[in-house]
Structures are given as C-alpha cells and as structure tokens.
Amino acid sequence: GLLPRLQTSAPTIRTLASSNSFSQNIPSSLWKLGRLNHVAIAVPDLEKAQSMYKDVLGAQVSETVALPEHGVYTVFVELGNTKLELLHPLGEKSPIANFLQKNKTGGIHHICIEVDDIKAAMTELKKKKIRILSEEPKIGAHGKPVIFLHPKDCHGVLVELEQA
C-alpha cells in the first residue's frame, strides 16, 4: 500500500533537503552577476507605447533618447525594482528594424543583467564558448559599457550584460 512507498521515499527527501545549497556548487569567478537592469521591448510605434505605460498604466516614463551607435531610440519605463526599455529603430541598419520586420507588433527583444566586472565576464565567457556579439564593450543607454551574448548560446535569449 501507500505506507511502504512513503517510508522508502522519505530518506531521499531528507537527503535532498540536507544537500549543499545550489550557490555552493557554482565555481568561484572573477566576476558576478548582479540585478536585472531591464527588459527591452521592441515597439513599432514609440509614442503609442510611451503613452500606454505613462497615461494608461501611470508609470514614470523617460524622454526619448537617440543612440545612433546602437541604431535605436530608447525610452525607459521605471518599475521600482527594474525598468522596461522601449526600443524603436533609428536608421536603416537598426537591428530593431530587422526584429520588427519579423515581429510586426513588437515584442521582447533582450534582457539586461548587471555585472560587476564586464572585462572579466568577457574573458571567462569566451573561455566557456559563449559568443559575444562585439569585440569590445560599447557604451549603452545608461552611459556604461555593455556587451551582448549570442542568443543561440543563451537558450534563445539575447542577453545584454552591463557594467554595474
């Protein structure tokens, strides 16, 4: 019946509960991941998206900033614990224009996670065969160095790392 099965599985549960915590199994590193800085959303109509977050949802929304080096206009929506970055194409070679051609209504483009040492992160990630989409960090929307990791190496997610 049920009692022998419960008695058999109980030691397994105790073993799992008393095992080392997950963080103790992570090898020490010269750099550390920090907090989620933002989730970036590509939008076909920047003014309409700004208005939705500001006027409908009541969020604090930044002014539009052009980042020609990245081929985007950006707007940040403050959420308290993180931000949303609204992205709109700037120029014909904008990666956001390509994204919007495939996703006409827009969608999540990337996530941005802070790191305490972007150069050490780049060195270690290259050793681990994670492709970085630029040879050197570029200055991002917050005026800090950023890199992007290839989505095929990150389970389908474009990951931006930003120097904290």
From TrEMBL:
Gene3D superfamilies per the UniProt record, alphabetical: 2,3-Dihydroxybiphenyl 1,2-Dioxygenase, domain 1
Catalytic EC class: isomerase
Keyword Metal-binding: yes
Alphabetically ordered keywords of this record: Cobalt, Isomerase, Metal-binding
Biological processes per GO annotation: L-methylmalonyl-CoA metabolic process
Signal peptide: none
GO CC terms of this entry: mitochondrion
Protein family according to the UniProt entry: Belongs to the methylmalonyl-CoA epimerase family.
Function comment: Methylmalonyl-CoA epimerase involved in propionyl-CoA metabolism.
Protein name: Methylmalonyl-CoA epimerase, mitochondrial
Classification lineage: Eukaryota, Metazoa, Chordata, Craniata, Vertebrata
